[in-house]
UniProtKB/TrEMBL annotation:
Protein's name in the database: Rhodanese domain-containing protein
Domain Rhodanese: 150-250
SMART domains: RHOD
UniProt xrefs under Pfam families: FSH1, Rhodanese, Rhodanese_C, UPF0176_N
Top-level taxon of origin: Eukaryota
InterPro entries, per database record: AB_hydrolase_fold, FSH-like_dom, Rhodanese-like_dom, Rhodanese-like_dom_sf, Rhodanese_C, TrhO, TRHO_N
Length: 607
């Protein structure tokens, strides 16, 4: 390699970093002085770097990094390449500028808080490219010889995304290969959880592009305990393997990379990918075609790009996504080209955004659908009004759906004339007809609630009691059946947002665990001014559901639900499974910064 050539450098290092500011300053100074462009990600747990520049500059950068003992043992992957053009690919991959950021995670392993986050120190054993190849070679040889072995207990696990595995993957005839088929890396923990029996008791060989994703994923598998100890990972990833075996070895196709090169192949020029539309051999992502629904990269050949610019990926086809008739590619047969206008016509379901994104990538992915449960003696209309600012600020990522609770309450008023929060009749005047006032509802009611709504106004039995919610413990079964019906008729929903008593109801649903699987499936809950009720459904077992708890700080201004009450509810959820936002306001959901930013950060994990 000539030092005047252009090159790309990739490396990562997991290590405890005490002074991020100094490290940030080093990268800013060093990369700018050497003219390096690309991405540098720093976190308290390490660094992840992909930069490009002249090979001579990259080598100087490596020497400067090596002088820091923090990077002892780091694998620097340096490769020559063509100079990035100032085109769509280079811009999208971040190779037209230098981006240095401090992040929470080097790679986002999960879109929700994990019950037991993996420790990188527990990662699988590293296998060099030669060792990895030898294991696969031995398995094939034993199979050829017909020797009785336990090699059928060996499985290959690809830790990459579907669009990467489309164009290349390992193939060993005698070894089972597991391709999770995920949209993004943060979906991998869920796949591992759902398919753990495929890994239990096996020798798992993992691989990814450069190795960093296997560090977290292998540690997560090993954290499952007995039966998951034997996890190994390809050190340096596919990149190091292809350097060691330039003919491709057991790897078929091309290695997808996250820089302007797009993909890197071996001397074997065989094409693994196929066009999404016509099924012809194709593996070029340079056009950056994307699924019009979820925005994942798709392979569309030049001819089919001329015919249509609206595409639906395999995953959206598999889950149907309410697109009606979707073209598919099966057994290499040609599929009908879906015209963009046809796609707009069949996508009439209200659950899908009406404006489909065009191929230029300006549109957002599917919004989250959140079912909103109002508080006691409220209704969907009033809660929607009170949450208008929240809905407006979340409109780009979430759709809020409001429903009335099933228990209709009688109209009541206090005996004094100062009652403000109702249509209560002023002293000496007749009450307005009930039909002129909006009905109020509840998810849970007092034990003496008769269930029959009074035809006229009813005077309250006693002055307002801020602790009345503690006695409202009946009616759960009715509300549960009602919510099952709502999920069936209006769902699916990604999560629930509950306010006050609505939050208590949502927490009770979470406490049901797997009992509601298939009827009420929740990815998360948002509990605002929530409280826990002393019902058997809570039990003693911690609740395992990603949750965001929003309540007033102590001392706060929430006169209905105290901060320690909401904090206790948060404690009922598993450690590492809940996020808490405390604010200085009253019985409300705050929508100003920084609270709104924190709410968005939580929700973006599930996009």
């Amino acid at each position: 390699m000539s030092k005047d050539e252009y090159g790309v450098l990739l490396y990562y290092k997991f290590a405890f970093i005490t002074d991020l500011n100094s490290l940030f300053s080093f990268y800013h100074s060093n990369c700018n002085s050497l003219g390096l462009l690309g991405r540098v990600r720093l976190s308290p747990n390490g660094v992840n770097v992909t930069v490009g520049g002249l090979l001579s500059a990259l080598e100087k950068h490596i020497e400067a990094v090596k002088s820091n003992s923090l990077f002892q043992g780091t694998d620097f992957k340096l490769a020559s390449s063509h100079h990035p053009l100032n085109d769509k690919v280079a811009v999208e991959c971040g190779f037209t500028s230098l981006s240095i950021r401090v992040v929470k995670e080097l790679v986002t392993f999960s879109s929700y808080p994990l019950l037991n986050p993996p420790e990188v120190s527990n990662a699988g054993r590293h296998l060099s490219a030669a060792e990895f190849h030898s294991v696969l070679q031995s398995a094939r040889q034993l199979m050829k010889n017909g020797s009785p072995t336990d090699d059928k207990q060996l499985v290959l696990l690809d830790a990459r995304n579907l669009y990467e595995t489309r164009i290349g993957k390992f193939h060993a005839p005698s070894v089972e290969t597991l391709d999770p088929g995920i949209r993004q890396y943060s979906d991998l923990p869920s796949w591992i959880d759902d398919n753990s029996e495929l890994l239990r008791g096996k020798h798992v060989l993992m691989y990814c592009t450069g190795g960093i994703r296997c560090e977290m994923a292998s540690a997560y598998i090993r954290s499952k305990g007995a039966g998951f100890e034997n996890v190994f990972q390809l050190y340096g990833g596919i990149q190091r393997y292809l350097e060691q075996f330039p003919d491709g070895g057991f790897f078929r196709g091309k290695n997808f990379v996250f820089d302007h090169r797009i993909s890197v192949g071996s001397s074997d020029t065989s094409i693994m990918g196929v066009c999404l539309i016509c099924g012809s051999s194709y593996d070029n992502y340079s056009s950056r075609c994307r699924c019009t629904h979820c925005r994942i990269l798709v392979l569309v050949c030049d001819s089919c790009q001329i015919k249509s610019d609206a595409y639906v990926c395999e995953l959206c086809q598999k889950h149907r996504m309410d697109f009606g008739s979707i073209p598919s590619v099966e057994d290499g047969e040609l599929a009908t080209v879906l015209d963009k206008n046809d796609l707009k016509t069949v996508c009439s379901d209200s659950k899908i955004s009406s404006q489909l994104p065009s191929r230029n990538g300006n549109a957002a992915p599917r919004k989250l659908r959140i079912l909103c449960l109002h508080g006691f003696r409220q209704n969907a209309s009033s809660f929607k009004g009170r949450s208008a600012s929240l809905a407006k600020k979340l409109k780009s990522i979430a759709e809020l759906v409001f429903i009335d609770a099933p228990h209709e309450l009688p109209f009541i008023y206090q005996s004094c004339t100062e009652a403000k929060n109702s249509c209560a009749p002023p002293s000496g005047q007749h009450a307005p007809p009930p039909e002129n006032c909006k009905r109020k509802y509840a998810w849970l009611v007092a034990s003496d609630f008769g269930g029959k709504v009074e035809a006229d106004w009813k005077i309250a039995n006693q002055p307002f009691d801020p602790l009345q919610y503690q006695g409202q413990t009946d009616g759960f079964d009715v509300s549960l059946a009602y919510l099952k019906k709502m999920f069936s008729e209006q769902g699916p929903f990604d999560g629930i947002l509950g306010f006050s008593q609505g939050a208590a109801m949502a927490a009770l649903l979470c406490a049901q665990g797997d009992k509601l699987k298939g009827e009420i499936d929740l990815r998360f809950v948002i509990l605002c001014s929530g409280f826990a009720l002393p019902l058997a459904d809570f039990g003693q077992k911690p609740i395992n559901c990603p949750s965001l708890h929003i309540f007033g700080s102590d001392p706060g201004k929430d006169r209905q639900i105290t901060s320690h009450t909401s904090r206790y509810l948060a404690s009922r959820f598993e450690d590492g499974c809940s996020v808490i936002i405390e604010h200085e306001f009253g019985h409300i959901i705050p929508t100003r910064s920084p609270y709104m930013d924190n709410i968005k950060d939580f929700l973006r994990r599930f996009l």
